[in-house]
C-alpha cells in the first residue's frame, strides 16, 4: 500500500509539472498567434484525454506549424534553436556516439564549440535520461533544440553508410540467408551430380525413395490440415465482441512501416485508407519507406500533402533491394513501442490498432507478435482471384489459428503484423536477404520462446490474379520457404533444443513437407496413368493395391484442402465463392510451375525479389467504404466530437468547446480537410458552390500549398 501511495504521489507531481509546462506552451503559442483559440482548446482536451504532453498532441495534428512549435519549445526550455539540416553535424561525432543511439535518444551532436560539443535535442525534457551516456561518449556538451524530423534527417545524412550496413546485417549470420550465395554454387553442382548418378545407376530405387518421401509429405500435411479443421469446427464462427478499452489505459505510440517500391498509382489511395484508422494521430507514427532510386513513387507522393503523423524515410541504394532491408533501415527512425506493417494495397479495418493495443495489454511479454487476417477486396475479378481468395481463407481462418493453438512455429504473413519493439530488437528484426522475411521472423520468434497470436481483425488487399505475376509471386514465396528451412536446419540439434520436439516436427511439416508436396505433385499425378491402364515405370515396384492406396491418399488430401477452404470461406463475407472450391485442383499445377522456378532461383538468384505491382484492380472498391460496412471515422486529430460514438478516443461533449463554424474561413476548412485526409465532398463549401469542386478536385495539392502559405504569411506578419 505504501508503494502504491508513493507512485500516486509521483504521478501527481509529474502530472502537475506537465500541466504547468502545457500552460506555458499554450500561452506562448497563443502569444505568437501560431494557433487558433479553438484549435488550442481541442488540443488541450485531447492531450488531457490521452495523458499526453500538449507538444506531442500538437506535433502531428496540423493545427500548428512545425517551426512555430519548435520556436515555442526552445523558448520554454531556454535553449537556442538550431537547424541541423542547414548546419550539418560532424560525421565523426555522430559515429562516436553511434547513429542508432542518436536516433533512439532523439538528438544529434553537431560540432565542437569552445571545448564543448553542441547537441541538438528534440525533447529537452528527456535530456536528464540521456545526459550521463552522452557526456561519457562526447565529453562536455552544450544544448540546443531542433525538431525531431530535422534531427533524424541529419543523422541519416551523416551516417548513411553505417545505417545501410546495419540494415543489411541485423540478423546474426548463423540464422541469416546472406551466407547462402557463397554456398549455392557448390550445392547446386553437388545435387545435380548426385541426382544424375542416382537416376543413371539405380533409377527405380531413386524413384521409389522420392515417391516414399512424397507419401510421407502428403500424410503429414494432411494430418495437420485435418487437425486444423477439427479445431476450427470446435470453435464458434464468430467470437464474442471484445470489451471496450478502459479509458485510464496509457495508449502507446504505434509506428507503422509502409514499404513502397514502384507503386506510383496506388500510393495516394493508400494514404486515404490509412487515414481511416481510428487511433489518436498524436500516437500514430506512419513511416512511408521509399528506396532512393524509386523516383516514380516519390513523385506521386509529392503531389499528396502528408499530414503531420506521416513521414517519408528514404533507404540508400545498396547491393540488394528487398522489403526486409528497407524495413530494417526504417526501424531505427520509428518512435513507437509497437511496430506495425502494411503493404501498398492494404485497406485495414478502422478499429484495427485499437484491437492490437487491447490484445497486447491483455497478454504477457511472451506474446511478441500479432497477425491479423488477410482477405481480398477483388475476389470476383476472375477465376484465379476466386481460387486465391479461397486459399487465403483456408490459411488465415483455419490453418494459422490451429498453428497458434498447437504452439507450432507460425510462418507469418507479410502485412498486418504488429510486434513489440523490444522483442523485435531482441531477435534481430528482419533478415534483409530472405525473400520471405515474414516466415523467417515467425521461426526466429519461436526459437526465442516468443509467441504469435492471431488477431480477429481483417486487412483487405488486392488479389494478384494475373497469371505471370501470380507465378512470380508464388515462386518467391516458395523460394523463401525453402531457404528458411535450409537456414535453420544448418544446426538441427539447436533447432530441436529451441523449438522442442513438437515445434521441430511442426517446422518440418509446415516448411519441408508443404514445399515437397508442391514440387513432387507431378509425380503423384502420373499415378493416374496406372489407374486407367497406361504403362508406368513404378507399376512393377508397387505392391498389389498400392496404386489404389496412393490414389485414395491423394483424394483424401484434396478433400481436406476443399473442406478447409469451405470452412475458411464461411468465416468471411465470401460465401458466394463456395462453388469454385472443387476447382482448387486446377490451381495446383500453377503452384508446381512456380515451385520448380523457385528451386532454380534458390541456387542461381537467391536474393532476387520478384516485385508484385498493385493497383490494377484497385478501382473495384472505390474508397473502400463497403469493406467494413461501417461509417468512415474522421481522423483522430480532427474535432473530437466528430468521431464515431463508439470510439474510445471521443472526448466527452462537455470536455471541449466546439469551434464555431463562423470562426473558420472556407480556406481554413479546405486546408484542414486536405491535411487530415478528409473527403472534400463533405465540406459545406463543396456542396454549396458548384464551381468550387472542379477547382478543388483538379489540383488539391496546389490549393493546399496556397492556403498553407497564405496562413503562414499571415501568422508571421501578425507576430
UniProtKB/TrEMBL annotation:
Keywords: Glycosyltransferase, Membrane, Transferase, Transmembrane, Transmembrane helix
KW Secreted (keyword) present: no
Matches recorded under InterPro entries: Glycosyltr_2/OpgH_subfam (IPR050321), Nucleotide-diphossugar_trans (IPR029044), T2SS_E_N_sf (IPR037257), T2SS_GspE_N (IPR007831)
Domain of life: Bacteria
Molecular function as annotated in GO: glycosyltransferase activity
Cellular compartment(s): Membrane
Topology of the protein relative to the lipid bilayer: Multi-pass membrane protein
Main location: membrane
Protein name as it appears in the record: Glycosyltransferase, catalytic subunit of cellulose synthase and poly-beta-1,6-N-acetylglucosamine synthase
Organism: Gemmobacter megaterium
Amino acid at each position: 500500500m505504501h508503494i502504491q501511495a508513493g507512485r500516486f504521489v509521483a504521478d501527481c507531481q509529474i502530472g502537475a509539472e506537465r500541466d504547468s509546462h502545457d500552460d506555458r506552451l499554450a500561452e506562448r503559442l497563443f502569444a505568437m498567434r501560431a494557433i487558433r483559440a479553438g484549435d488550442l482548446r481541442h488540443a488541450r482536451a485531447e492531450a488531457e484525454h490521452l495523458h499526453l504532453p500538449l507538444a506531442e498532441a500538437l506535433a502531428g495534428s496540423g493545427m500548428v506549424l512545425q517551426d512555430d512549435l519548435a520556436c515555442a519549445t526552445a523558448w520554454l526550455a531556454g535553449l537556442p534553436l538550431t537547424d541541423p539540416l542547414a548546419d550539418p553535424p560532424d560525421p565523426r561525432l555522430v559515429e562516436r556516439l553511434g547513429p542508432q543511439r542518436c536516433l533512439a535518444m532523439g538528438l544529434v551532436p553537431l560540432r565542437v564549440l569552445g571545448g564543448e560539443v553542441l547537441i541538438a535535442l528534440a525533447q529537452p525534457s528527456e535530456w536528464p535520461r540521456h545526459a550521463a551516456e552522452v557526456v561519457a561518449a562526447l565529453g562536455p556538451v552544450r544544448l540546443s533544440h531542433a525538431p525531431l524530423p530535422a534531427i533524424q534527417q541529419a543523422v541519416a545524412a551523416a551516417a548513411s553508410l553505417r545505417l545501410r550496413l546495419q540494415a543489411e546485417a541485423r540478423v546474426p549470420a548463423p540464422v541469416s540467408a546472406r551466407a547462402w550465395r557463397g554456398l549455392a554454387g557448390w550445392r547446386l553442382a553437388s545435387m545435380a551430380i548426385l541426382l544424375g548418378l542416382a537416376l543413371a545407376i539405380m533409377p527405380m530405387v531413386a524413384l521409389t525413395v522420392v515417391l516414399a518421401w512424397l507419401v510421407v509429405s502428403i500424410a503429414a500435411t494432411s494430418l495437420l490440415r485435418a487437425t486444423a479443421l477439427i479445431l476450427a469446427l470446435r470453435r464458434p464462427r464468430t467470437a464474442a465482441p471484445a470489451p471496450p478499452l478502459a479509458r485510464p489505459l496509457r495508449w502507446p505510440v504505434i509506428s507503422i512501416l509502409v514499404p513502397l517500391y514502384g507503386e506510383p498509382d496506388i500510393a495516394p489511395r493508400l494514404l486515404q485508407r490509412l487515414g481511416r484508422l481510428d487511433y489518436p494521430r498524436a500516437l500514430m507514427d506512419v513511416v512511408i519507406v521509399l528506396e532512393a532510386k524509386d523516383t516514380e513513387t516519390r513523385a506521386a507522393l509529392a503531389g499528396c500533402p502528408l499530414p503531420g503523423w506521416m513521414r517519408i524515410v528514404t533507404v540508400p541504394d545498396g547491393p540488394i533491394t528487398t522489403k526486409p532491408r528497407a524495413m530494417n533501415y526504417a526501424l531505427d527512425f520509428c518512435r513507437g513501442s509497437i511496430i506495425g506493417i502494411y503493404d501498398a494495397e492494404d485497406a485495414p479495418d478502422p478499429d484495427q490498432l485499437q484491437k492490437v493495443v487491447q490484445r497486447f495489454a491483455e497478454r504477457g511479454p511472451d506474446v511478441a507478435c500479432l497477425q491479423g487476417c488477410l482477405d481480398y477486396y477483388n475476389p470476383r475479378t476472375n477465376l484465379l482471384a476466386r481460387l486465391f481468395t479461397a486459399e487465403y481463407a483456408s490459411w488465415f481462418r483455419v490453418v494459422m489459428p490451429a498453428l497458434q493453438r498447437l504452439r507450432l512455429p507460425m510462418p507469418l504473413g507479410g502485412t498486418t503484423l504488429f510486434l513489440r519493439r523490444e522483442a523485435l530488437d531482441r531477435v534481430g528484426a528482419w533478415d534483409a536477404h530472405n525473400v520471405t522475411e515474414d516466415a523467417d521472423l515467425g521461426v526466429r520468434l519461436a526459437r526465442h520462446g516468443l509467441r504469435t497470436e492471431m488477431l480477429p481483425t481483417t486487412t483487405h488487399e488486392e488479389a494478384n490474379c494475373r497469371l505471370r505475376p501470380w507465378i512470380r509471386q508464388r515462386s518467391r514465396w516458395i523460394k523463401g520457404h525453402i531457404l528458411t528451412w535450409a537456414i535453420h536446419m544448418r544446426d538441427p540439434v539447436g533447432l530441436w533444443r529451441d523449438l522442442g520436439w513438437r515445434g521441430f516436427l511442426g517446422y518440418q511439416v509446415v516448411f519441408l513437407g508443404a514445399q515437397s508436396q508442391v514440387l513432387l505433385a507431378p509425380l503423384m499425378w502420373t499415378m493416374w496413368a496406372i489407374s486407367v491402364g497406361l504403362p508406368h515405370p513404378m507399376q512393377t515396384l508397387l505392391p498389389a493395391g498400392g496404386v489404389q492406396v496412393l490414389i485414395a491418399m491423394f483424394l483424401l488430401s484434396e478433400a481436406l484442402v476443399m473442406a478447409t477452404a469451405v470452412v475458411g470461406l464461411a468465416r468471411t463475407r465470401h460465401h458466394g465463392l463456395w462453388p469454385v472450391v472443387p476447382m482448387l485442383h486446377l490451381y495446383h499445377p500453377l503452384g508446381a510451375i512456380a515451385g520448380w522456378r523457385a528451386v532454380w532461383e534458390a541456387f542461381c538468384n537467391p536474393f532476387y525479389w520478384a516485385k508484385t505491382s498493385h493497383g490494377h484492380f484497385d478501382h473495384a472498391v472505390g474508397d473502400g467504404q463497403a469493406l467494413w460496412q461501417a461509417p468512415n471515422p474522421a481522423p483522430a486529430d480532427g474535432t473530437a466530437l466528430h468521431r464515431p460514438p463508439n470510439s474510445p478516443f471521443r472526448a466527452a461533449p462537455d470536455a471541449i468547446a466546439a469551434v464555431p463554424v463562423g470562426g473558420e474561413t472556407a480556406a481554413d476548412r479546405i486546408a484542414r480537410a486536405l491535411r487530415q485526409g478528409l473527403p472534400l465532398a463533405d465540406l459545406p463549401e463543396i456542396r454549396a458552390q458548384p464551381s468550387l469542386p472542379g477547382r478543388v478536385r483538379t489540383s488539391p495539392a496546389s490549393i493546399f500549398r496556397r492556403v498553407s502559405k497564405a496562413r503562414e504569411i499571415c501568422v508571421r506578419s501578425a507576430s
